[in-house]
Amino acid sequence: MSAKGRVLVAMSGGIDSSLAAVLLHEQGYEVIGMTMKTWDYSTSGGSKKETGCCSLDSINDARDVAVGLGFPHYILDIREEFGDYVINHFTGEYIAGRTPNPCVLCNTHIKWDALLRRADKLGCEYIATGHYANIRAENGRFVISKGLDAHKDQSYALWGISQESLSRTIFPLGHLRKTEIREMAAERGFMALVNKPESYEICFVPDNDYRGFLKRRVPGLTQEVAGGEFVLEDGTIVGHHEGYPFYTIGQRKGLGIALGYPVFVTEIQKDTNRVVLGKAEALSRDGMWVGKLNMVKYADLIGKPTQTTTKVRYKHDGTPALIEQTEDGRMQVLFQEGVDGIAPGQAAVFYEGNDVIGGGWITSSFRQGV
C-alpha cells in the first residue's frame, strides 16, 4: 500500500472528479475509482436523451481514466437507496408545499454514506470527490471552507456531512480554479473531458421539467390538486391554477395569469390549495427559522448569538445575519436587510468568513411586525 494511503474516489465521468482522481494518483495515493449509478433515465418518462453522471457514456469516461492510469474502477448500484430516500423526499416535499434540494440531500445522506461503506470494504482510509471546497482540522473539529474558485464553490451543498465523514474526506480541487483544471486535463491528454459539456440539472429530471416528473411519479396528483385558487395577500381571488405542488416561492414565469403588473409566488398554502401572489417587494423577508441542523465549525451555538453571512440557496451571494440557536435544536436567523425568495424546504448555510459554521433546512420565514 502507498505510504499516503488508499483512497476511494467518486468518479462521475466529468472533468472535476476525473482530475481529482488523477491528482491524487500523482500525489502518491493508492487510488480506487468508483462510479455510482443512482438513477435509470428510462424510468423517468422524460423526453431528453440520457446524459450526466448515470449515463453509460459517463461510466465509460470514468473507467477510461482509471484504466489509462492503471488503478481499479468499480460501478456501484445505489438506485434503490437513492430512489427510496432522495426521490421520495423530492416528491414528498413538493406535495407538502415546500421546495426540496435533492442534490444536498444526496450528497450528505446517500453518496457519503455509500462511499464510506464501500471504502471500509476495500480497505480505504479516505474518500475523495471533485467538489470545489476545502477541509481543515481546527480545535478538534473538521471545518469545511469555500473553494478558491468563487464561481465554482460548492461548500453550500456540503453542510450536512458529519464530522466523522469529514475526517476521512479529501477535496483535491479546493485550492484550484476551474480554468486550471481544464489546463491540467489538456496537458495530460484528456481532451474528451475538456470538451465535455457540464450538466446542471437534477440528475433524475433530465428534461428539467419537475412538474412533468411529479405528474408521472405520483399518479392522480393532477386530478387531486387541480382547480386551486390564486389569491393576493389580502385574500382576493384573482384566478385558478393547476395545483399548489407545481409552483415555487419566487416564481414569476408560467403562472398563466395577467394582472397588469408583474406578480410572483410569495406563499404556498397546502391545506387550502392556494397560491399567494404579490409584487416583487412582497417576497422580502426579515428572518427565518431553520431546523434539522448540522453544526460544522462549532459543536453548537446555544446561548451564543453569532454574526454570519447566510445563504438561502446555492446561487445566493449570502446576506449578513444574526443567528441564534435554540435549546430545541432550531436556528433563528435575523437578516440585516430583507432577503427575497426564501423557500421552505431549501437549505440555509451559515458562514463565518469562508468557513461553514453549519446549516439546516428552512422551515419558515417571516417579516417582523407582520
Lay out the secondary structure.
Blueprint: E1 6-10, H1 15-26, E2 30-37, H2 56-69, E3 73-77, H3 79-95, H4 102-121, E4 126-128, E5 133-138, E6 141-146, H5 163-166, E7 169-170, H6 178-187, H7 191-194, H8 210-217, H9 221-225, E8 228-232, E9 237-241, E10 264-269, E11 274-278, E12 285-295, E13 306-311, E14 319-325, E15 331-339, E16 347-352, E17 355-366
Helix pairs in contact: 1-2, 3-4
Which labels suit this protein?
single chain, 370 residues, alpha/beta, Rossmann fold, SH3 type barrels, Elongation Factor Tu (Ef-tu), domain 3, 6-stranded antiparallel β-barrel, 5-stranded parallel β-sheet, 9 helices, 17 strands, 29% strand, globular
Span between N and C termini? Answer: 63 Å
Residue stretches low in confidence (pLDDT < 50, at least 5 long) are: none
Instruction: Give the mean pLDDT.
Output: 92
Helical content band: 25-40%
What is the H/E string?
EHEHEHHEEEHEHHHHEEEEEEEEEE
Major sheet characteristics: 6 strands, antiparallel, barrel
What is the name of the CATH superfamily of the largest domain? HUPs
Can you tell me the CATH class of the largest domain? Alpha Beta
Radius of gyration: 22 Å
How does CATH name the architecture of the largest domain? 3-Layer(aba) Sandwich
